[in-house]
């Protein structure tokens, strides 16, 4: 962990199509290549158009993301796994049982369960996005350049 930041973070949610993808996109946007970031789901979902749209509103493109499961990870060498749903938390604990990896559980609302108009549903996605942004900025503060 250089600069007090982990070098590799994995976000996990139920389907790897909304919450974990948003969180990964935000952390990459905040820290670029300083932190290796990936995301997975307990089960495999499909790309979510609302998630893509609300992330695009803040200039983060997640449209090329393809959902994957824990079993499909290329590498399981992470310093930190942040799970965003109870199902993902169970899988994260299972995956890290034999590794020196921290696991944090950030219970995060699943906006895909919302009903109502398109605008009402988008507002639910925006709330999740904005909450994740707030938590990620607090958990992974910006690293300033060293003073000379």
Automatic annotation (TrEMBL):
CDD domains (UniProt xref): LMWP_ArsC (cd16345)
InterPro entries: Ptyr_pPase (IPR023485), Ptyr_pPase_sf (IPR036196)
Domain Phosphotyrosine protein phosphatase I: 7-142
SMART domains tied to this protein: LMWPc
Highest taxon in the source lineage: Bacteria
Entry keyword Mitochondrion: no
E.C. number(s) listed in UniProt: 3.1.3.48
Entry keywords, A to Z: Arsenical resistance, Hydrolase
GO MF terms, alphabetically ordered: protein tyrosine phosphatase activity
Top class in the EC scheme: hydrolase
Leader sequence residues: none
One annotated GO biological process: response to arsenic-containing substance
Name by which UniProt lists this protein: Protein-tyrosine phosphatase
Native source organism of the sequence: Novispirillum itersonii
